[in-house]
Amino acid sequence: MNQNSALRFEDLTESAAQIADAAEPGLPELVKRLERANRRRERKRQAA
């Protein structure tokens, strides 16, 4: 993933988190878990 798409992804997840806060109380935690998993997956990919 290049730097520009990474920034856009961050913007999208931030917006999604704001929407989730209003829509469903459990969703912000899910978003955080998915973001952590994505960061972990990206670190493994870069280490390979």
Percentage of residues assigned to helices = over 70%
Query: Which structural class should the secondary elements be placed in?
Result: mainly alpha
Tell me what portion of residues adopts beta-strand conformation.
under 5%
Largest sheet: none
Overall tally of structural domains:
1
The ordered string of helix (H) and strand (E) elements is HH
Q: In angstroms, what is the radius of gyration?
A: 12 Å
Shape estimate: elongated
Average pLDDT over all residues: 77
**What is the number of E strands?**
0
Number of helices: 2
Measured between the Cα atoms of the first and last residue, the distance is 15 Å
Uncertain runs are: none
List the helices and strands and how they pair.
Blueprint: H1 3-23, H2 27-47
Kindly summarize this structure in a few lines.
This protein is mainly alpha-helical.
Description:
By secondary structure, the chain is mainly α. The protein has one domain (3-47). 88% of the residues lie in helices and 0% in strands. The protein contains two helices and no strands. Helix 1 (3-23) runs antiparallel to helix 2 (27-47). The chain is elongated. 0% of the residues are buried.
Looking at this protein, list some descriptive labels.
about 50 residues, mainly alpha, 2 helices, about 90% helix
